[in-house]
Amino acid sequence: MRHIRTLILISLCALLACSCHKSNPIVIIPEPVECTPKHGSFTLNDETFLCFENLKGDDTELAKTINDMFRSTFGIKPNLGDKSSSHRNYILFELNGKEDKNIGNEGYTLTVKRGHILVKANTTAGLFYGFQTLRQMAYPDQLADSKKITIPCAKIKDYPRFAYRGGHLDVSRHFFDVKFVKRYIDLLASYKINKFHWHLTDDHGWRIQIDKYPGLTSIGAWRPARNSWDTLHPVLPGEPATYGGYYTKEQVREVIRYAAARHIDIIPEIEIPGHCSAILATYPQYACDDYPYTVAVGPYWPPKAIMCAGNDDVLTFYKDVLKEVAELFPYPYIHIGGDEAFNDNWQVCPKCQQRIADKHLADETELQQWMMNEIEQYLKKYDKKAIMWDDIVSDDMKNKCAVMCWQGLDVAKTAAKHGNEVILCPTSHCYFNYYQNDPEKEPLAMTGLITLEKAYEFEPMPEGLSQDQEKFILGGQCNLWSEFINTPEQAEYMLLPRLCALAECVWSPASKKDFKNFSNRVSYHQQFLTKTGYNCHK
Question: What does pTM read for this prediction?
Fold first, then answer.
């Protein structure tokens, strides 16, 4: 018993030591740029007022979002007012009348005093992130089930290190409904992630309504049911396609509105030209051969399916699809894939070989570059910029797209030196579908091991770049591929708490990173996440 008490005391001391304030710990993730503790605390109760100043037009959506989050977080229905009212207990969210250049577009200042709290920012995004910090400062009291919620007095100045802070979700291999997609977005927002990479198409299912090609969802969104990815067998003759799903355009708009209220841009991904079994099962005329393609039901390597680059109708198909996607998503980027496009079929396809000859291309690699460039240029008609996986990167690459780098820092450096925007998500640190602990003790997952500490070691800025080249590094993201993730509960288990590590890597100053400090803070968050119903790895 003495031993147990000693361990508890040691753990508590470690936690308090990492916090800004000894009596009421501040355990914020990601770690703020500056956090200065003050004496005392602010008390949240039924008399607390929420006040908003200098909001205009669409900005007023922020008030509704914060009000809803306030109620769901604290279990308190706040009063609404302004700071000129006679009440003393208030939280004021105020847009700066004059820009504070020290905090940028997403930064904020947060001042907690005994009688009031002041959150100031240049934009509503900054105010929103300030509120996320405020929510976290109350976590210890929430865990104690206190009827009176106290927030320790402090002065915080905070802003992100990188502009792109992303979380990815693969809904092709296993489909997740709108309810969970929103819940996923909530998790991202809680940790100041501002991009949601929505992997909507792949070999295993097409997940977005396209009016001009209804077969993509009536056929391409469905496959025979399989539970365990490691024991899957090919589609049997006459086997019914009962597993799948897709998002209607109205559902997509619903998710867009939901994400926008949480200051998250959505990056939709439409895979080109590989990972296309779901397309070819529906429209076989776009293949190089007459192979009887089916919506894939599991692992196969290397993938055979690839769209015919010599067929003009294929380019028309992609342009038609992307026109509808571009009109649906109001964001600057669309991801168009480009990875793992095995070109064996191109090598023997007369149409593809004729295209190589007509365009004076050297080989099939240049054929893919040509095809991706055609799509990239087309997207400019809609003021969209293409993102591609780093398979497109070479010393003589001609594409000016943004590059999402999954294969490591070297390829990221090459892309940045070419003047391409770069988003890092290396398999070594950011693939959260990999095991996070001893595989013998964990649910079945993709081969590979990324512990919480390994995830925290992620450094988005490659060494050896000039200052001008560093400007092309936009940031980083975590990826959650769903081969072995077929339920929302399992998705949360694989994401948490590694998402916390990723968030700190892309938001906080590199100089403030300290895994011991972080691990103490994350222990609080694990408890809170579990308490609030998330399936968090411990």
Answer: 0.94
